[in-house]
TrEMBL record:
InterPro entries assigned: DNA_bind_recomb_sf, DNA_bind_recombinase_dom, Resolv_N, Resolvase-like_N_sf, SSR_resolvase, Zn_ribbon_recom_dom
Annotated source species: Tardibacter chloracetimidivorans
Record domain Resolvase/invertase-type recombinase catalytic: where: 7-161
The protein's name in its UniProt record: Recombinase family protein
Molecular function GO terms recorded: DNA binding; DNA strand exchange activity
Amino acid sequence: MNAISTKAAIYARFSTELQSDRSIDDQVALCRAFAEREGLEITAVHSDRARSGGSRFGREGLDALMEDARAGRVGVVIVEALDRLSRDMEDLAGIHKRLTFQGVQIRAVHEGAVNTVLVGLRGLIGQLYREDNVHKIRRTMAGIARDGRSAGGRAYGYRPLPGKPGERVIVEEEAAIVRRIYAEYLAGRTPRDIACGLTKDAVPAPFGARWNASTIVGSRARQNGILHNQLYAGRQVWNRVRMVRDPDTGKRVSRENLPEEWTITDVPALAIVDSDTFAAAQARLLARGGARPWEKRRPRRILSGLLRCGACGAGMSTMGKDKSGRTRIRCTAQAERGDCPDPATFYLDTVEKAVLDGLRGELVHPTIMTEYVREYHAERQRLAADTISRRADIERRLAAIDKEAERVTDWLVKGVGDVDRLDRRAKELMVEESALREQLASSGEAPNIVTLHPQALKRYEQQLGELHSALGRALEHGVQEAADAVRDLVSSITLARATDGGIAIDIEGRLNALLGPVAYPNSRHTAVSGGVMVAEEGLEPPTRGL
């Protein structure tokens, strides 16, 4: 067994906040005793507290362990059992594969050296155990819901009853606000007006500092929001949604359940409004309902869904027409909450003409634009390759220094060789290592360059051509064609007041995620009150060496 393979790292984990930190201490103590029996030297201990084994994401301890393995600082990973690393078959197999590639062996206290067969068996058992727990927990929660107790989070207007899990009582101060919301809504006020009024009156919101229209009205499909929540009428609905974990991000996302899967229980003691009031509110919601903007097959206008407020970043929406019949647009945050720091109102036709004229002006030669993108991306790849190469050379030299320093230290300890020469060599290595680490720190992280497939650039050129052709007819006819073409290339259009009284417009393209902030279209323009658009920044040829 060589020197590096005797260096071991311990990894420990427990799942929920209900468990004690003592669990980590117990696991580490067990692993230390195992390491002593196996003749291993513990160089690091990594742990994750209150982190599920169902995902690799959000586990800083595991990330640090894998980094130690990549850097060659450990040769063995010790765990109490394989399910401490992961309870997911795919993740456990991936961890084992990567550690094996790095020449790192996994050893479990109760199972010894880990091989592919053991990983497969333990991964399957761990995942089945986790899924079985989910079923048991949901069964318990369903029983709680059938008893009329809360099996989920706290709803506005209620608080938990101390010493009686799942039971709630009405909070009269919040209940009065709920009744006010229903009364104002039935009196004809919109959810936005109600939210603005509550914010203006400094009424504490359920979440955050301000009320939103969405807090008032919620979702018809999910039966949430104050106006849709049946609990306020004395009916508890549980299991409207379920949470699933996205395997690509590790985040838990909600999925709607079918109505027949819901558990509905009458809880008249928790009613805040009477059934007639709740029914009247539902009737008005239904009468005012219709297809949501995201449910419509086609955008109504060329720039629908693309406009953003330059003052606060919220979306912008129409706010009716003036006496001359021109459509106005304003910040939705101002409309819903009244908290935009610089609310501005613009005429839609002025914005559309300015944006389309500006885009059309920059798309005179789509082929030139595509060549610019190709050259810029090639230059970024070249610079990235240079940086990666320099960092790789430094890291290889650091690894060699580390190995030589270990040999020198070993010889000094054993008294082998000329002590003075070995001591001088050790100091030289320390000086060189320090200089190299400074160079590595100053070189920065290796840039993340996404390779563009030739077909992607070909499609980009085609999209530019389609947009150029569509914009030529957009102001007269063919609005839908132009809207589709704009959405292929533009991700957002930000509007703000210009210093000359016009409109400052910032257009960001979808290719920016791959090429960075200078990729087309990402030019800043100013549209004066008459709608004339003048480019303040445009495209320039990529500069070599930048």
